[in-house]
Specification:
Elements: H1 2-18, H2 33-44, H3 48-55, E1 56-60, H4 70-80, E2 86-89, H5 94-107, E3 113-117, H6 135-140, H7 144-160, E4 165-167, H8 191-206, E5 211-217, H9 238-243, H10 246-254, E6 259-262, E7 274-275, E8 297-298, H11 305-315, E9 321-324, H12 330-333, H13 338-348, E10 353-354, H14 359-372, H15 377-393, H16 407-410, H17 414-427, E11 429-433, E12 446-452, H18 462-470, E13 475-481, H19 486-497, E14 501-507, H20 522-533, E15 537-542, E16 557-560, H21 566-577
Parallel strand pairs: 1-2, 1-10, 2-3, 3-4, 4-5, 5-6, 6-9, 12-13, 12-14, 14-15, 15-16
Antiparallel strand pairs: 7-8, 11-16
Helix pairs in contact: 1-11, 2-15, 3-14, 3-15, 7-8, 7-17, 8-10, 13-14, 17-21, 18-21, 19-20
Length: 609
């Protein structure tokens, strides 16, 4: 089967090479002819090991590290000996990230392409940077220019710390209320909206000479399994994909997006090659204790030439970089070891293999496949040329170090803060106000209850609590999470039972790979159900999963904030106090309750709806 797969792939690739080149996308930031010529000459001088190394991008959490430390030396080994093509950074302090990136660039013969998940700006990964609201909140404003402006700042701030490849925007159409991993990361359930807002965000990023990445092709929105914990299977025909999932990606391609990420999802009606779980599961990216979904499946898009080469390259005309989702995710590691996964993903069309579970093993598999002829040299050169051309266009061959002394003038400035608050103010959506409780009666006896699927403690709701108190509201407060003690649950129950009006912050936030990724803890859900059964006045605010209302349909007052960012919590407090207009509209439907576009409009002078 390996030989058959390789032969078919080679035929497809040879056909591609013979086909006339498509025109460069309009409106995009793209490698120039000079960069393409540079890359062609550069690749001819590279060894097989240097070429193979460029395909693999390692993932790390940056930290201070002495140059004699094991952490530093191992990273240095990957850069110098394994000749890696780039590094993706996860949560870390800004200065440590920049300094470590610079150190590795100094060690690299070929400049590294540094990348970062930045769906909400670089603050998605760095606590000391501005964190914009989630994509769904941006669409709730109805203004795509917010997405463009957010992209400009994201690109500028990423570039300031040496990041030139941003893994955003999310172009998944979230039309499945049970989706445990995309949710508010999506711009909504309407493919045209997702395409419009996502492309605006991408073009903002690329206006700063930073590569944007549309993800997760061919569309992760209609899944009910988190690919960190298993392989989602979407049993849909091509006609459906054409009319929904692929629409935003085509719009982004036409708009000149430079990179597209491939998802670990199986679509058996498109590629029905069967795969079986490995006898021994060696781990993946799932949270400790999370259920691993292990079942017979079909080949994921990550390893499918039908998706990457035939559909994305040939039919949709994409010329940029194809990036895998993390190769360490359980949706892949359940079925393939890292040697085979790397080879098959590359033969399918991937240019960059992101975050392997075992870098050395994946490199060994790729090198062996090249030397045996399973990976044709023409195919290898094609991907490496593409990546080198981008690196040249980014200017990394002239200046690959980020100036550390400029960081505090470029990141989290007044413009970032202002835009964050603008978006948050316009995003807050009032779905239901049946009892006319907004703005809240300051004379009532009030309790604020936070319910979270995280383990961050009461700090989670501090922005809401502080803003309400700053607005003159007096109340008692309580906070519960899954591991709260019995006495904490009892204290929370007592606080809400003694109040006339209870504000419930539902912090069911997206937590990829977690066992309760978008829900709220059972201890808190039980108290909320008791409150609703007693006809207590309850104001629910979703600071994460907007679909959570489906579990409490009897709730009579309901606001959607789409995330727990401080800006959204502050805006929610102002909405409760009646000191700002409420103008947001749902970018998604709440099944059985409300349609997309729902949103009660209130001015700050109104006392009822």
């Amino acid at each position: 089967m390996k030989f058959l797969f390789s032969s078919l792939t080679v035929l497809v690739l040879l056909f591609n090479a013979a086909a006339p080149a498509k025109a460069q996308p309009s409106g995009g930031f793209w490698p120039s002819k000079k960069s393409e010529e540079f890359a062609a000459k550069y690749v001819k001088k590279m060894s097989v090991e240097e070429k193979v190394g460029q395909l693999v991008h390692i993932g790390i959490n940056a930290k201070f590290a002495n140059q004699e430390s094991a952490f530093f030396k191992d990273l240095q080994r990957h850069v110098v000996q394994n000749k890696l093509g780039g590094i993706i950074f996860f949560g870390a302090p800004i200065y440590e990230t920049t300094i470590l990136a610079n150190r590795m660039q100094q060690n690299a013969k070929t400049p590294l392409l540094m990348s970062l998940d930045a769906e909400t700006g670089i603050g998605m990964r760095f606590e000391d940077a501005t964190n914009f609201p989630w994509a769904m909140a941006v669409t709730a404003t109805g203004n795509p220019d917010f997405a463009r402006r957010m992209g400009v700042i994201t690109g500028r701030e990423a570039k300031a710390i040496g990041i030139r490849h941003v893994y955003a925007p999310v172009l998944d159409v979230n039309n499945n209320a049970g989706n445990p991993v995309i949710n508010v990361r999506s711009f909504g359930e309407n493919p045209e909206d997702v395409g419009t807002f996502g492309t605006a965000f991408a073009q903002g990023i690329q206006s700063q000479q930073v590569i944007a990445t549309a993800k997760h092709f061919p569309g992760h929105g209609d899944t009910n399994i988190d690919s960190h914990r298993g392989l989602p299977i979407i049993d849909l025909p091509r006609e459906r994909l054409n009319s929904l999932e692929l629409v935003p990606f085509k719009k982004a391609i036409d708009g000149g997006i430079g990179s597209i990420m491939i998802a670990h999802i199986a679509l058996p009606q498109i590629d029905n090659e069967e795969i079986k779980p490995l006898k021994e599961y060696r781990g993946g990216d799932a949270e400790a204790g999370a259920e691993i979904v292990k079942e017979k499946a079909t080949i994921p898009a990550t390893l499918s030439a039908k998706f990457q080469t035939e559909i994305l390259r040939n039919e949709m005309g994409f010329k940029g970089l194809i990036v895998s989702d993390a190769m360490s995710m359980s949706g892949l590691t359940l079925y393939f070891d890292q040697e085979e996964a790397g080879v098959r993903a590359f033969l399918a069309g991937t240019d960059i293999l992101e975050k392997p579970a075992d870098v050395d093993v994946m490199l060994r598999g790729l090198t062996a496949a090249v030397k045996s002829g399973r990976i044709p040299m023409e195919r290898l050169d094609d991907s490496v040329r593409r990546q080198i051309a981008w690196k040249h266009e980014l200017g990394l061959y002239k200046e690959k170090l980020a100036p550390v002394d400029k960081i505090d003038t470029l990141i989290s400035g007044a413009e970032s803060t202002l835009l964050t608050d603008e978006i948050a103010t316009k995003a807050i959506t009032l779905v239901r106000n049946d009892e006319g409780l907004l703005p809240i009666n300051k004379n009532a006896k009030i309790a604020v209850l936070g319910l979270s699927n995280g383990i961050d403690g009461p700090l989670t709701m501090s922005s809401l609590v502080n803003s309400l108190r700053g607005g003159g509201l007096r109340f008692s407060s309580a906070y519960l999470q899954e591991n709260s003690f019995a006495d904490q649950v009892a204290a929370a129950r007592k606080a809400v039972n003694e109040a006339d009006t209870v504000i419930v912050g539902l912090y069911g936030r997206v937590r990829s790979g977690a066992k309760n990724s978008v829900g709220i803890p059972e201890n808190g859900a039980a108290i909320l159900k008791e409150l609703l059964a007693s006809n207590k006045k309850v104001i629910g605010i979703s600071f994460g999963n907007p679909y959570v209302l489906g579990g409490f349909p009897e709730m009579k007052t309901y606001l959607v904030a789409y995330g727990d960012m401080p800006s959204l919590q502050r805006a929610s407090a102002r909405a409760l106090l009646g000191t700002q207009d409420i103008t947001g509209k749902l970018p998604i439907s709440l099944p059985g309750l409300y349609l997309r576009g729902t949103g009660i409009q209130l001015t700050k002078k109104q006392t009822t709806d």
